[in-house]
Fold:
Amino acid sequence: MDTSIGYFQMPGLISSGILIIATLIMFRIYGSMNGGLYRIIWWVSLVLLLTFLVFNLNLTLQALFQSNWEHNISLLSLQLSASVFSLVVVYAGLKTTTELKTTNISKRYLDKVMESMSSYLIVTDKNYHIQKVNEALCIEMGVDETQMKGTNVSSIFFDCNIEELVQNYSEQSEAYIMSHNTELKSVMLTGEVIYRNSGEVDGYVFIAFNNYQKEITRLYSYFRSIFDHSEFAIITTDLDGSITGANPAAERYFEQSEEDMVMCMTPEDLHSSDCLHEMVEQIESDNEENAMNTLLRHVNEGKTINQETLMRRKDDRLFPALVTINAIKDDGKAIGYFEIIADLTEKKKAEEELRKVNKELKDFAHIVSHDLKAPLRAISSLSSWLQEDYAEQLGQEGQEQFKLINSRVTRMENLINGILEYSRVGRAKGEEITEDLNEIVQDVKDAIVPKENFEVSIETHLPTLNIDRTRAQQIFQNIISNAVKYMDKSLGEIKINCQQDNGNWVFSVKDNGPGIEKQYFDKIFQIFQTLNPRDEYESTGVGLAIVKKSVELYGGKVWLESIKNLGTTFFFTLPQNTSRLNLQS
Structure:
């Protein structure tokens, strides 16, 4: 083999070396080929490279054993062409892969940008059919992206001309979207055209922002309406304590116009001299600084001033008021203050009238106790003397008439005692100390329940309450005495239970007596109401009324369940927060 043949072998060897280097490069970039499409391009390029590498080596070997110069030149041309073509294929594959990766990276970046946007973004085709929406819009509307794809964008935005909007892409237009709670929400909408490289329209991008200005206007109108129509006086001030606003109620309270209060007055002018000092005493401040400054500093710390005090009208007349002072804050920082003032003039008048009425009732109770009972006692004494002195002359019928008089006098005295007892409930303030209801019920049982033909059982341990002992006795005594009085069975049974329910103690007293018809469930708790004739069962009709009033005095309620001829269960509740469980069993 001569040197000329070796000369023709060099390009083939060089091109083969280039192809081998290109193949090694392909293997090196394999790890960065993420995704099915990139891998397919990589494999196609690799197969082409290997094919041309084998073809190139084959041509080189042929040139090695061929002595025909013309034939060697042809082989050389094929080698060079194959090498150039292989490099072109590799370059094209790598360039395509790089562009696809760049496009995919851009797409992922765009997706992340869309999902991170708090505003609402929609991408459509040129016919306004939705292709993509961001998560913020899906959450606001309460629907999935797949449900919106393919629908016309006009089905999302109401009261807006979409075509006119994209023609004026620099402008914003108000539109409405239907939120997940079926309310129309105002947004500001913009639209832009997406163009292809050829200049043709490819689609549109719509971006909607919450219409905060409209929301602010709506909230301002809402709070302004409250401010203007409130029955309470509302006064606002800046941080220096200067009045910045006053509502119509404040104008009525202080007999000053809002303009005069803003221009010429300070909050100190509206309070009595004692008012500010009372408020300072309420917050237990020993600071000697200006009283108003002390109050404002206290409010700045996030606390609320709430105080009954005296306020000053235009002519220095004072009126009672409930005053609340709080801070107006922006991002947690005080920017001013507001004061709400409730005129208590009518309330104080009503309280005074109530005090007078209570005093009259108290006086009436004394009158009933002394002036009405005295004649009854005289009648009772006189009838007893006559019955004893003229027993022989009266005869059997006369004796019966005197017995009837004495029973009626006793009944009247019991009614008077019932009235007195009922009037004392809520007025007489007994000492509320820790009382064991197990002991109280046992005392009631020993006092009023016959030892024969009756069984009284406390089935669950009763709690210990902070309660007036007399009231607790009245509650159990009146319910249990009813069960004893009206028992129609040979063996009477009374069962007492207690359980906790939603912050209350629920007590029950169950008997096996005659029962009560449902139509009388409310009537029996009314004063002087009885279900049986008084000649058959002597009763004042006051006992259960006292039970109801006493239970309600502690914030509880009373009711009953009953089945005719099977018995009755009375229930009543007492709040748990004024009691503690007796742990002794």
Observations:
- The CA atoms of residues 275 and 412 lie 54 Å apart.
- The radius of gyration is 49 Å.
